[in-house]
Amino acid sequence: MGAVSVRNLCLNFGEVEVLKNLNLDIEEGEFLVLLGSSGCGKSTLLNCIAGLLDITDGQIFIKGRNVTWEQPKDRGIGMVFQSYALYPQMTVEGNLAFGLKNARVPKDEIARRVARAAEILHIEPLLKRKPAQLSGGQRQRVAIGRALVRDVDVFLFDEPLSNLDAKLRAELRVEIKRLHQQLENTTMIYVTHDQIEAMTLADRIAIMRSGAIQQLADPATIYNKPVNKYVAGFIGSPSINFIDGQLEIGSDPVFRAGETKISLARYQFSGNGPKPGAVTFGIRPEHIFIEKAASDQPFQAEVDVEVIEPMGADTLVWSRFNGSELRFRVDGQHPVKKGDRVMVGFDPARASVFDAQTEMRL
Fold it and tell me: For the domain that residue 338 is a member of, what is the CATH number?
């Protein structure tokens, strides 16, 4: 059993099933990210683990102890919310120490823990300030510090960076990763709808949809081998290209869309091998090459450039292929403009093929 274990967890709000028979094991010292769109149940699951919601059925274990019906304060967790929820009349030091004072922790121990948290989060110069004198990023550091002083084994983060601007999010993302590396054997569960946060922070990602976990794996596996079409489309920016067609089985399997045929001889099918039928072919923009680089790829085709989006380091190009949108990246210095006809190429072995009915990866 891991640091946190969820067994057959169900949560209903009236007749609505919000969480559906969830099972999840989080190892000691692991950084697990719950990722999904709004309403998928990720924050609800976190609140169940924290004890802020009473579950309908199932069990929750923390460090091997059944905490299903224990109060949040008795679960050995520290929680950081989307809102900072700092006491405006108290200094930073007062906010950090408040919970420890209520728990009647000795004064010298409070001072030690506050000093340690301030050092780790680089907020020592802010200890005498009040929240109104802090920036958004500084306030969130204090909110993290308030959880950190509790000296717990499991930290729960509920979209802690969503109120910050892009630059601050990037900076605090690095700080949270450093924090996890510094606090060895400390388990962190982090909720977000931001896939960049998930990919950069997580040891493993649990992608949720409609109260169920779609895929639980490390970031590389989820990116390169998504278990179904939903996961493939959710991960990646810009999102994966989908092309509908047919899978034909001959001496080698072939994907056919209109007059175009793409050999899947090098594609690794799961299970007992492919069966003919309607499928969706998915290829990520990052895996499509252009012009000279395209000539080295197993499959090539010509496409017309419809829209370009310069992004500095690279340019996102929009085109069409067999009636479907095809997006790909080129170097930001590459001369490409609307109306150009260019050669693109890719390796079908890097693609994903999904059954049209079940939407599962073949």
Answer: 2.40.50.140
Q: Which sign, positive or negative, has the C-alpha torsion 55, 58, 63, 69? A: positive
Mean pLDDT (whole number) for 82-110:
86
Using a CB cutoff of 8 Å and minimum separation of 24, what contacts does 166-175 make?
168/135, 168/136, 168/137, 169/194, 169/197, 171/137, 172/137, 172/140, 172/141, 173/197, 173/200, 173/201, 175/121, 175/122, 175/141
CB-based contacts of 175, cutoff 8 Å, min separation 6: 121, 122, 141
* Same-domain pairing of 47 and 118: yes
Read off the pLDDT of residues 218-272 as tens digits, 9 standing for 90 and up: 999 999 999 999 999 999 888 999 999 999 998 889 999 988 899 999 888 887 7
- Which of these, 278, 286, 294, 290, lies nearest to 356 by C-alpha position? 278
Last residue of a domain, one of 198, 216, 234: 234
Residues 103 and 247 in one domain: no
Any domain includes 361: no
Q: Is residue 206 over pLDDT 90?
A: yes
Residue ending a domain, among 234, 254, 277, is 234
Q: Check residue 33 and give its pLDDT.
A: 96
Write out the residue range of the structural domain in which residue 319 sits.
Answer: 241-355
| pLDDT at residue 1 tops 70 | no
- Coil vs helix vs strand at 289: strand
> Which stretch of DSSP H or E encloses residue 11?
strand 4-13
* Residue 8 to residue 208: CA distance in whole angstroms: 15
**Domain count of the chain?**
2
174 and 197 within one domain: yes
3-state helix, strand, coil in the chain (%, to 5): 30, 35, 35
Q: How far apart are CA 156 and CA 26, in angstroms?
A: 12
Residue 362 lies in a domain: no
Residues 222 and 294 in one domain: no
Percent of the chain with pLDDT over 90: 52
Task: Write out the DSSP string of 166-211.
Answer: HHHHHHHHHHHHHHHHHSTT-EEEEEES-HHHHHHH-SEEEEEETT
